[in-house]
Amino acid sequence: MQEPHTQPDEDKLYRLSAETLRVGNAVSIVLLAIGIALLLWHKNHAEHHSHSLLTAWHSLLHGQPRGFLEVGLQTIILTPILTSFAICLYAIVPKRRALLIPSLLVIGGFVLSIWIGIGW
C-alpha cells in the first residue's frame, strides 16, 4: 500500500509548525529558568499571580521573578494556540477540511480550558 505523498506546501507547514512549537517551548523554558533563579536569588516568594498579559509583561520588564514565571507560563500556553491558528489560516485558503477541523477543535479546547481556568 502506498503512503500518501504530501505536497511541498504541506511539508513547509509541518516544518514551520514544528519549529514554532520548538522555539516557543525554548523561550518558555528560558523565561521559567530565569524566574526560578531570580526567586532563589532574592529568597522571596512571588507575591501574587495576575491573569493579565500586560501585568505580567510589566513585572517582567521590571525584572521581577513573578513576571518571568508568568510570561513563561503564558508563552507555553499561547505557543500551540498560535500554531493552531496558523494551521487554520493555511487550511481555510485551499479549503482543506482535514487540517481545518482538528485545528479548530484544538483551539476550542484551549479556549474552553482558559475560560474554565480563569472562571473557576
Q: What would you report as the Rg, rounded to the nearest angstrom?
A: 18 Å
Average pLDDT works out at 78
Q: Summarize the biggest pleated sheet.
A: none
Count of DSSP H/I helices: 4
N-to-C span: 50 Å
Flag low-confidence runs. none
Structure description:
It is a single chain. This protein is mainly α and 120 residues long. Helix content is 79%, strand content 0%. The chain is built from 4 helices and no strands. The protein has helices at residues 8-42, 53-61, 65-92, 97-119. It starts with 7 loop residues before the first helix and ends with a helix. The mean pLDDT is 78.
Task: Describe the secondary-structure layout.
Blueprint: H1 8-42, H2 53-61, H3 65-92, H4 97-119
Helix pairs in contact: 1-3, 2-3, 3-4
Key phrases:
120 residues; mainly alpha; elongated
Short characterization:
It contains four helices and no strands.
